[in-house]
Task: inverse folding
């Protein structure tokens, strides 16, 4: 179905032929999170599902984990291997990266899709204490930024942490397979891997400042924004209306945060239809 390869320091799962599609997962996942949508996309496109710098099997970033630095690193790593413009898809922290990538290098991006994410600096702040039902979904945004303590409390218990997150943030946790859960836990149990994951959150304030600057100029490419009905819902699409020339999207029903694994058929359908419209110049 796919081939594992490295481009510079970046690990990617690749397959298919056609207009390129780059998939960026979030935390605490890896490129494997797109496995259930990969085959459908690869029937029409050349697909690269990448591990972000420092995560999965990709090498660490030497320039920081703010999304301006990360997206620049990825653009430089992939450009020699992908000269034409591509469809860019990001989920969770991968959406943070994808937005900054599209904002900095719009000529490289044919379309942008963001899946169930709150972009730093571009989402209305919440007052504390958070309601209990919200805190269950968002507590990690505060916890992951703390110095040292997250590493101390999660060392050797990566699998338990990830199971808790999946079980509480998914409508269908049973659809996140045991193989995927094991893969995520094994990758983040590698030396320094949890710290590198936390580094994205510790840099989120800086990423927010960068996004506020990026947001002064609307994204020129078509944007698709989708949220899980039991997760961010339509808030993501609404937050992007002022940030792009063309935004569409909405909600995936019967779905929590882990959209590609919970509702792979619907996510695949929405992506393929969007890509086809972009390529037919209907947008």
Result:
């Amino acid at each position: 179905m796919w081939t594992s390869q490295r481009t510079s320091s970046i690990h990617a799962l690749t397959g298919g032929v056609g207009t390129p599609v780059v998939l960026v997962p979030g935390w605490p996942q890896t490129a494997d999170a797109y496995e259930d949508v990969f085959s459908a996309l690869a029937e029409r496109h050349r697909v690269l599902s990448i591990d972000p710098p420092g995560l999965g099997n990709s090498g660490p970033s030497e320039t920081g984990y703010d999304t301006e630095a990360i997206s620049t690193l990825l653009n430089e790593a992939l450009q020699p291997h992908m000269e034409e413009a591509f469809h860019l898809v990001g989920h969770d922290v991968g959406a943070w990266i994808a937005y900054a990538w599209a904002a900095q290098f719009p000529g490289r991006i044919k379309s942008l899709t963001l899946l169930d994410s709150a972009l730093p600096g571009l989402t209305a702040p919440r007052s504390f204490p958070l309601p209990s039902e919200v805190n269950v979904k968002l507590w990690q945004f505060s916890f992951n930024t703390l110095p040292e303590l997250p590493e101390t409390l999660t060392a050797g218990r990566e699998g338990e942490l990830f199971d808790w997150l999946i079980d509480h943030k998914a409508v269908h946790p049973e659809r996140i397979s045991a193989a995927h859960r094991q893969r995520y836990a094994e990758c983040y149990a590698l030396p320094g891997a949890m710290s590198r994951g936390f580094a994205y959150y510790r840099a989120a304030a800086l990423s927010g400042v960068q996004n506020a600057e990026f947001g002064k100029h609307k994204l020129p490419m078509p944007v698709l924004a989708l949220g899980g009905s039991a997760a961010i819902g339509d808030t993501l699409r609404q937050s992007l209306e002022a940030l792009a020339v063309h935004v569409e999207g909405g909600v995936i029903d019967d779905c929590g945060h882990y959209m590609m694994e919970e509702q792979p058929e619907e996510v695949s359908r929405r992506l393929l239809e969007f890509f086809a419209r972009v390529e037919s110049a209907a947008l």
Q: What stands out?
A: The chain has a mean pLDDT of 95.
